[in-house]
Write a structure and sequence with these properties.
By secondary structure, this protein is mostly beta strands. The protein has no helices and five strands. The protein has one domain. A hairpin with a 4-residue loop joins strand 1 and strand 2. The termini are far apart.
Length: 66
């Protein structure tokens, strides 16, 4: 699917979010990556096979108690 050099990570790769953005819809909160993954602004993902990855954003820095 990817025509970039070097090739973007596949949808199955652990670093799949590093693929280039093909279409961005910030008003709707999502972007389509070159590898077919849809990433949402809450860090959730929809993979090309229809499976989903739950949001995986860490806690806000100001919320951390030292």
């Amino acid at each position: 699917m990817c025509q970039h050099q070097p090739t973007c990570p596949s949808a199955e790769a652990i670093d799949r979010e590093a693929a280039r953005v093909l279409a961005c819809f910030p008003e709707q909160g999502w972007s389509l990556l070159c590898n077919g993954v849809i990433v949402f602004e809450d860090t959730g993902e929809l993979l090309p096979d229809g499976s989903s990855i739950a949001p995986h954003r860490g806690p806000a820095r100001h919320a951390l108690v030292a």
